[in-house]
Queue: 2 jobs
Job 1
Amino acid sequence: MTTRVALTVSSLVVLVASCHLVTGVGDATFEPEGAGGASTSSGMAGSSSSMGGASTSTGGTSSSSGGGGGTGGTMACGHATHPPNGTCPAVCDSCEGSICNIECQGSGSAYDCGARFGNTIICPAGWDCSVACQGSDACHWISQGISIACPAGHRCDVGCAGSSACRNLDVACAPDGPCGLDCVVADAGCRDAELLCGSNDCTLTCDEVASMNQRPEPLDCTGSDCVCVDTTCFP
């Protein structure tokens, strides 16, 4: 695991002046590019709604008028390129608007992600990604753990609940997309899981303060320019 650097409270105050604060995976609000656009997401498995905003994207560069998105090829803190709706990619179990939902349950289930993906889940390009790891060992298939590769320029949320559901999991955030890991920490649900942040907003959230043998790894904020927060995971 890499060295973790947590932002101080004073740093967060400065960041909030220019960035959209993320309060936790599943209840955060991000605004897509476009005049007056607003997008909200809630729930572990991810749901999204958008109103009043149209978005355009060319070559991975986002622009904004009224929504606070990035300009000149630089994405603003807390924002993601709003992907077009289209045919739901095969890797997704369902799609809701711009979100690809991937469901993972225990070994031998109808949603056995170990059998489907091996040791790496790769979120589809051009879509926001929501991965729900629910059930015993849902996203923990080998002793070294597995990894989730988030899509460039888009939101990525991972939710974990169940005995060792996300033990040793690595969430590899995109360099430019908001990213978060939400943990129900009972029964080592996120023990030694790690959130590897990019330079956009990044949050690690636990349902309660985790004891030593239940905890995920401290948030890896190396290189993060935006809000980077541990919430209730550590005393």
Job 2
Amino acid sequence: MFRKTPVAWLQLIKEKTRLVVAIAGIGFADMLMFVQLGFQDSLYDSATVPHRLLQADLVIINPQFRSLTSVQSFSRQRLYQTLSHDQVQSVSSVYIGMGDWKNPETQLQRSILVWGVEPNVPSFALPGLTQNAGELKLLNQVLFDQAGRPEYGAISTLFQQQGRVDAELNRQTVQVAGLFTMGSSFVADGNIITSDSTFLKLYQDRQAEQADVD
């Protein structure tokens, strides 16, 4: 007489078909939430890779800076003003722009993210950039992101075979002098790093005194 009647369990198994449908619906909803969380983490991780690789304790940007595809420049005088502070040891600037990369094999063009850095003070903690910083001092030399989309061409393989790869960026001839690894994101499928001098040559409408990130 003290035995409890499993009312809840009896209600569940009374109509087995409805129970199975309910379990399937709840399982699908849970799976969908995990998929969305995965997309969210993937978006955040890929979008913040360049930010995490920056070698900087303090970053200065334009207040209207929204994303890497909507960059707003500002005067480099702000950069040199920070040198007046006793705790600032060095400064460097970064230029950012979307470029048109032509696949050297298929001749098809595809947008690519271009970073212009000062070769003497590399702005990213990338082994490929550190090793090839001297190459960037020469005009029209670029470093190619080997983790980019394959639509840009087999640049990594060609570079390992030939040592140098001639390509076209913004309708100008450039030479791949090294490789690095950054990876694609929702903003761009690939990346190019070049010197600030080469960047300003590729983007003749940009001015040297107007930087994007300091």
